[in-house]
Amino acid sequence: MNEKSEYQRIMAIDFGLKRIGIALSDPMQIISYPFITLANDNKFWSKFLPIIKEKNVTKIILGLPLKEDGSEYDLTKLVNEFKSKIEKKTNIKVLVRDERYTSSIAQSNLLISINKKSRRKDKSIIDQSAAAIILEDYLKEIKRK
Hints:
The chain is α/β, with parallel strands linked by helices and 145 residues long. Helix content is 48%, strand content 24%. The mean pLDDT is 84.
């Protein structure tokens, strides 16, 4: 049996107006790792959709930006529109998850793990690391069930 039919990955997305961070689970859906950051531009879908197929993604977790009190930002509406587009283009159900603090946690983790100052300030690394945190939280939650 080939890997594509045997293993299925979960993807997490940290949506931004300029960049979209993507993380993936391992094929056994145990750990998450930062994968790639794509520009949020007119080439996004042509780069994003092949990843879904190549990595055999069967579930997508999308970070939902919420204010401290749980209310929505203007960006929250755009994320929900993005969710609908993903579902329409991939036929994969997208789950939304509260993403409060993921970018700041990712930035703190990078300060600890990356020595080179220029790499720590690379926002694309922060975006994919934030997506990995969203996915890690989701994987922990489903393990508890």
